[in-house]
């Protein structure tokens, strides 16, 4: 019986001893979510290449939008200063006109009255001129008083003022006072085109009465059209008079138009300002109101650059992969600038660092897949 108990105690003791020797679970090392490693075979499969930042020239391009506009001196609103009824016109929107061409005929009784008043004053002035000469002769011989001569002189001057004023009023309705006589009084007057160009708007019809403030026609001289571009306030300092701007339409993006900056507005409204450009060559297919795109290229700048494929984007940020050990890389955020001819401007200082210049996208995919699996 004692021997049996001894064996049992030994068995229990051995059981506890074995339990105490079970291996403990080692704590896992923290995972760096921005680091990724490759095997030699994986690096070969993605054709991984390592390089360093270079320094080169890059063209900075500012993309703008706007529309074709006409300067005030090339956009004319035609009206009749004294009003009247439209008797006749052959004008339609788009009709080509020449300076001095008759574009409408107006009629109104007040035109007759104005011509009549001028001729009456003209006749009275002729009489006053002769009377003044007669009174001057009489005054020289002391046959009349100085007061009488002064009254005649005042009458003459008043009539002269009235004649000049009426002649200017006749000019407003395109009537030459010098050619007016009793047999040429007319109820109709002609309206002439003040510029070469085309009719953009016709606002009246035959028989309609127009007031002095009504615009009958709108005329455009398109030979000096401008491109009016919108520029954000942050880019305003980059532009200056004399810079070249390449413009094109959405309809024909391959057809480029050379323009030159002639005016930079210093008025900012809603975070934007305006830049006016002059077309170097007139093209009749370009019409006011047409929307256009434009690109302004600045002089070449020496900057730090990497191949375009070396930079990857993730969650609206830009990154490169920096080698920190053999085939081990750290995803590093960078600030980038312009992209030109396959090169990307990098504002972040990467001098002396080994950068993945080919295969960066594959590293990004492996890094994000690894994180998801873990």
Structural summary, described in words:
This protein is α+β, with helices and mostly antiparallel strands and 374 residues long. Among the domains are: 99 residues, conserved putative lor/sdh protein from methanococcus maripaludis s2 fold, CATH 2.40.420.20; 78 residues. Strands 4-13-16-15-14-17 form a 6-stranded antiparallel β-barrel. The chain has a 4-stranded antiparallel beta sheet with strand order 1-21-20-19, with helices on one face. It is elongated, with a radius of gyration of 45 Å. Helix 3 packs antiparallel against helix 4.
Strand-helix topology:
Blueprint: H1 2-20, E1 35-37, H2 40-45, E2 49-51, E3 54-58, E4 61-69, E5 75-78, E6 84-88, E7 96-97, E8 102-107, H3 109-140, H4 146-172, E9 188-192, E10 197-202, E11 209-210, E12 217-220, E13 226-232, E14 244-248, E15 257-264, E16 272-279, E17 291-297, E18 301-307, E19 312-314, E20 317-325, E21 328-334, E22 336-340, E23 343-346, E24 355-358, H5 360-373
Helix pairs in contact: 3-4
CATH architecture of the domain at 35-60 and 301-373: Beta Barrel
Tell me, briefly, the overall form: elongated
Give the averaged pLDDT, no decimals: 85
Query: Which percent band covers the strand fraction?
Result: 25-35%
The topology string of helices and strands comes to HEHEEEEEEEHHEEEEEEEEEEEEEEEEH
Fraction of residues in helices?
25-40%
CATH-defined topology of the domain at 35-60 and 301-373: conserved putative lor/sdh protein from methanococcus maripaludis s2 fold
Label the structural class: alpha+beta
Which value, in Å, is the CA radius of gyration? 45 Å
Unreliably modeled segments: 1-20, 25-30
Q: How widely separated are the two ends?
A: 59 Å
Largest sheet: 6 strands, antiparallel, barrel
Biggest sheet, spatial arrangement of strands:
4-13-16-15-14-17
Tell how many strands the DSSP assignment holds. Answer: 24
Number of helices: 5
The top-level CATH class of the domain at 35-60 and 301-373 is Mainly Beta
């Amino acid at each position: 019986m004692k021997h049996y108990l001894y064996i049992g105690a030994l068995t229990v003791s051995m059981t506890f001893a074995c339990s105490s020797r079970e291996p403990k679970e080692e704590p896992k090392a923290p995972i760096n979510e921005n680091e990724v490693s490759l095997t030699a075979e994986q690096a070969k499969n993605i054709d991984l290449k390592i390089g360093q930042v270079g320094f080169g020239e890059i063209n900075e391009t500012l993309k703008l939008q706007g529309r074709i506009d006409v300067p005030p001196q090339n956009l004319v609103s035609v009206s009749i200063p004294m009003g009247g009824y439209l008797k006749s016109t052959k004008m339609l929107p788009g009709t080509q006109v020449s300076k001095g061409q008759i574009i409408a005929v107006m009629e109104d009784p007040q035109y007759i009255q104005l011509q009549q008043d001028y001729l009456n004053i003209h006749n009275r002035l002729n009489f006053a001129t002769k009377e003044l000469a007669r009174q001057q002769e009489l005054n020289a011989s002391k046959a009349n008083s100085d007061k009488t001569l002064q009254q005649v002189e005042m009458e003459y001057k008043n009539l002269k003022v009235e004649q000049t004023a009426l002649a200017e009023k006749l000019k407003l309705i395109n009537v030459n006072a010098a050619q007016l006589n009793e047999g040429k009084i007319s109820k109709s007057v002609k309206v002439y085109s003040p510029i070469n160009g085309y009719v953009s708007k016709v606002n009246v019809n035959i028989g309609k009465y127009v007031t002095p403030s009504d615009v009958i026609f709108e005329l455009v001289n398109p030979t000096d059209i401008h491109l009016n571009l919108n520029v954000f306030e942050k880019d305003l300092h980059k532009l200056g008079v004399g810079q070249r701007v390449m413009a094109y339409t959405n309809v024909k993006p391959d057809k480029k138009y050379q323009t030159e900056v002639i005016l930079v507005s210093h008025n900012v409204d809603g975070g934007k300002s305006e830049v006016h450009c002059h077309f170097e060559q007139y093209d009749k297919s370009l019409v006011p109101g047409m929307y256009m795109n434009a690109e302004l290229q600045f002089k070449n700048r020496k900057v730090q650059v990497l191949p375009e494929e070396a930079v990857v984007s993730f969650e609206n940020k830009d990154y490169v992969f920096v080698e920190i050990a053999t085939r081990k890389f750290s995803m590093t955020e960078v600030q980038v600038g312009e992209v030109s001819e396959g090169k990307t401007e990098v504002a972040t200082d990467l001098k002396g660092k080994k950068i993945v210049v080919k295969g960066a996208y594959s590293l990004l995919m492996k890094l994000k897949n690894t994180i998801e699996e873990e």
